[in-house]
């Protein structure tokens, strides 16, 4: 077997340095290399394959700051067999990591223009590294807006961070929830309800969208109504994947392999394929 394909298939051992509970079903893991080897460098939007020994392997986006070379951070929603087991991980436990994989968000193309980041649910996690990167060199960008929709107020991720970002006053942050009890003073409604209120110059704005399929479909429609072309809309897609490297074909979406050619695509590249379940 060629050396390259052998190493990308072999997980590197990382131990859990810190585990933070975000919400009732979502947690963040900060990982450090067991062997003290070179830290992982990644681009915002890339993902790792996380291996729970004896259970299975799943793709999870990197949710930390790309400039933090000491640790690698993942935010995970407990969903099925592997992620349920991951929810039981504690400090000092060891998992396998392969990556980073995939095509990142087009940060260079965002420079000099305005940016709208639209997140639904756990979709905020893959967008967080973009926000860190933009805020790290804020003067290179125009207006920045984050619109984020969650199920209920108690499902909202990264609350403290959202407040910190809001306090900077150089970034617009709007959070909405599908449903709320009394006491919630924010917006109620799906994330697309926030789009008509955005002051948006379609000629200089790019939108990055990450969330469930239905959220992405409606968000795209609302942004197009605001005049954004498919060239200016970027989406992060999800497919069931295995190798992470374009070898096995599990994540084929029409003519592309999501793990290798994505997960981030310009909408004009995959427009009609986006809503298709099996291809
Ligand atoms: C590029 C990429 C980045 C992702 N980033 C994150 C992240 O940052 N945080 C996070 O919580 N989740 C993320 N996911 C989703 C995560 O991979 C799935 O929730 C996880 O694989 C489910 O595995 P499980 O064993 O817990 O559930 P299972 O019991 O295996 O599966 C439960 C259900 O999820 C479906 N499923 C399994 N794997 C995937 C998958 N890879 N994508 C979509 N559906 C799947 C199955 O078809 C099944 O219907 C990402 C997925 C992709 C493709």
Helix-and-strand structural type: alpha/beta
Bin the helical content: 10-25%
Morphology call: globular
User: Unreliable segments (pLDDT under 50, ≥5 consecutive)?
Assistant: 1-5
Q: Which ligands occur here?
A: flavin-adenine dinucleotide
Characterise the protein shown here.
22% of the residues lie in helices and 30% in strands. It has 279 residues and is of the alpha/beta class. The longest helix has 13 residues, at 124-136. The two termini are 30 Å apart. Residues 1-5 have low confidence and may be disordered. It binds flavin-adenine dinucleotide. Flavin-adenine dinucleotide binds at residues 47, 56, 58-61, 75-77, 79-83, 122, 125-126, 238-241, 263.
What is this structure, in a nutshell?
The protein has 279 residues and is an alpha/beta fold. Helices cover 22% and strands 30% of the residues. Flavin-adenine dinucleotide binds next to strand 4, strand 5, helix 2 and helix 4.
List keywords for this structure.
disordered N terminus, 8 helices, 22% helix, alpha/beta, 6-stranded antiparallel beta sheet, globular, binds flavin-adenine dinucleotide, 279 residues, 7-stranded mixed beta sheet, 15 strands
């Amino acid at each position: 077997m060629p050396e390259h394909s052998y190493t990308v298939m072999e997980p590197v051992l990382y131990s859990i340095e810190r585990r933070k509970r975000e919400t009732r079903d979502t947690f963040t893991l900060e990982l450090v290399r067991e062997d003290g080897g070179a830290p992982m460098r990644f681009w915002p939007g890339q993902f790792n394959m996380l291996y729970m020994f004896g259970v299975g392997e799943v793709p999870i986006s990197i949710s930390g700051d790309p400039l933090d070379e000491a640790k690698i951070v993942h935010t995970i929603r407990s969903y099925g067999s592997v992620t349920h087991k991951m929810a039981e991980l504690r400090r000092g436990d060891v998992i396998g990591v392969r990556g980073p994989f995939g095509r990142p968000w087009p940060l260079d193309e965002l420079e000099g223009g305005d940016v709208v980041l639209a997140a639904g649910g756990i979709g905020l996690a893959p967008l967080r590294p973009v926000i860190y990167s933009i805020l790290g060199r804020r003067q290179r960008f125009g207006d920045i807006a984050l619109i984020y929709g969650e199920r209920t107020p108690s499902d909202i991720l990264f609350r403290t961070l959202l407040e910190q970002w809001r306090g900077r006053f150089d970034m617009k942050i709007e959070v909405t929830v599908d449903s709320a009890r009394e006491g919630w003073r924010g917006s109620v409604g799906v994330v697309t309800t926030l789009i008509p209120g955005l002051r948006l110059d379609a000629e200089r704005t790019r939108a990055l969208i990450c969330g469930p399929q239905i959220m992405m479909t409606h968000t795209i429609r609302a942004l197009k109504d605001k005049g954004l072309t498919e060239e200016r809309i970027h989406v992060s897609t999800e497919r069931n994947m295995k190798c992470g490297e374009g070898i096995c074909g599990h994540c084929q979406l029409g003519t592309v392999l999501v793990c290798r050619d994505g997960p981030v695509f310009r909408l004009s590249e995959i427009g009609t394929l986006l809503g298709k379940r099996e291809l």
